[in-house]
Every structure is written in C-alpha cells, then in structure tokens.
Amino acid sequence: xxxxxxxxxxxxxxxxxxxxxxxxxxxxxxxxxxxxxxxxxxxxxxxxxxxxxxxxxxxxxxxxxxxxxxxxxxxxxxxxxxxxxxxxxxxxxxxxxxxxxxxxxxxxxxxxxxxxxxxxxxxxxxxxxxxxxxxxxxxxxxxxxxxxxxxxxxxxxxxxxxxxxxxxxxxxxxxxxxxxxxxxxxxxxxxxxxxxxxx
Length: 199
What we know:
Helix content: 40-55%
Strand order of the largest sheet: 1-2
Distance between the termini: 92 Å
C-alpha cells in the first residue's frame, strides 16, 4: 500500500522512512467502513448491581387442633391419681400427728375433706392460670387457652374451675359436649371463653 511523506510529499511503497527527506512515514488511516478498519468497541454503561428483591414469605399459622373428649378424660384420670397420692400423704401425716385414735380419726376425716377441696381447687386453678396445663394435660400434650390462643387470666381460670361443677351437675352433659361439638369445647369452656388444644 503506497505511503506519502507528510513533510515533502514523496510517495513510496511500503517504505518506513522517506527516501527524499528521511521523515518517518505512516500508512494512511483506512477509510471508515473499510475492510482494514477495526470496529470501535461499543462503550458499555458502567455495571450497577441490581438490588436484590426482598423475598416475602407469608406467615402461615398452623391450624389449632382441638383436644377431644377421650384425651381430656385420660388427663382427668391422671390428675385424679395425682390428687389421691397427695391426699394419701396428708392422711398419713394426720394419723402420725393424732396417733390414729377415734378422735384423731374424726379430725383426720374433716381435715381431709377440707384439704381435698382446697388442694384440688388450687391445683387446677393455679396450673391452668400459670401454665395452661395440669400434670395430666402435660402428659397428654394438651393445654387450655383463650379463644384467640393466649394464656388464661386468673379470673378465667377460677371461672372455668367452678363451671366444671355445672358441667357435672347436669348429668355430665357439659363434659360430653366436648365429644359432640366440632370445636370440642365443653360447657365450662363455653362459659369461660376457653378451649383445649393439642400441642
């Protein structure tokens, strides 16, 4: 490809220096679009990291599983055995204190009936209020809660305890309701605004 000297105008073929003046010769730039022209690389925009989209996982709460009649019945039986054990210990202590005489036997009987009621009431009320469970319910993996799922207030626990007597007075129909209703709530649950659920 012929080259032209930029200083004196001399032309030569593929020469590196001008034969007339000795200037350095450069090949003319290829016209745009020529096969010898190298395409200019496109200028890319600076890379910016795409902000990661915050993934939203909807909170799905597990549906409550109500505890039916039989599992609650077994829990009551366990609590009954536990209270019998406590009462037996109290009776034994009473016999030791009063030497087992006739007068002592009467005193023991009266004290036993009183303490049976007090211990049974305190046991049921306090355990349902503080933990939602008695020992029987703990073993059967069930608990008493409010309708919205929260723990019982002290007033609810007391009201539920006394409402159980009403469930028993009407030929145990209040307890049997737990096996007949779809939500497994007994009469005392309806009155106290509570329900019993599986854990």
